[in-house]
């Protein structure tokens, strides 16, 4: 078999392994999935009228706020899902299974590829489930045609890939699962400091740069524009640039760290 064929075969095996782990131990996935669902329900049904009144300049419209907040929650879901990836990678390193894999005739990079592809698939599934909750409470993608849906899916996959590679690197540098969870905490905190819940313009002036100059805000604004038919402006290429940059950075960091560990 060629090197490429071996890499694909071994990566597929590692992918099946990670998916089986996720199916057999669903508690972490469910816990991470409950966070965006609870935030969605909290902000819509508890703060919805107040938030919509503040954004709309005085008139409360919960339906309008549902349309605004759901895209942000969807990308926040990805940030929460990849925390589980960091924990899973850290567990593999701590339990010695990686050392065992290195003694076997398998493609070296397949271990990380299996984690990344499995995490991206879980992220997409989590986004679909949270999106279904959003539709149930009234969200409608009024501005999305076939091309917009395809672009939205591409953005979600690209953004999930970027965050997953960063999470893999965090898992590799963590001595245990608890440390990995703590190291990956920014994946959950950054969406809270973005335009997910209120527009950047509505934030205090000193805080606006924090929300604007980070990866989540352009990605959220792009997804919001694709689903609702609103303007995207420069956020589209910023979201792609952030995603590609984080993917390359995370890949180089994770592979260099993985290769540095003793065989």
TrEMBL record:
One matching Pfam family: ABC2_membrane
Molecular function per GO: ABC-type transporter activity
Record domain ABC transmembrane type-2: where: 27-261
Key word Magnesium present: no
GO cellular component assignments: ATP-binding cassette (ABC) transporter complex
PROSITE patterns in the record: ABC_TM2
Any GO BP: response to antibiotic
Alphabetical UniProt keywords: Antibiotic resistance, Cell membrane, Membrane, Transmembrane, Transmembrane helix, Transport
Transmembrane regions: 64-89, 110-137, 149-173, 185-207, 236-254
Subcellular location: Cell membrane; Membrane
InterPro entries listed in its UniProt record: ABC2_TM, ABC2_TM_bact-type, ABC_2_transport, Nod_factor_ABC_transporter
Predominant cellular place of this UniProt entry's protein: membrane
Topology versus the membrane: Multi-pass membrane protein
Presence of keyword Transmembrane helix: yes
Record family assignment: Belongs to the ABC-2 integral membrane protein family.
The protein's name in its UniProt record: Transport permease protein
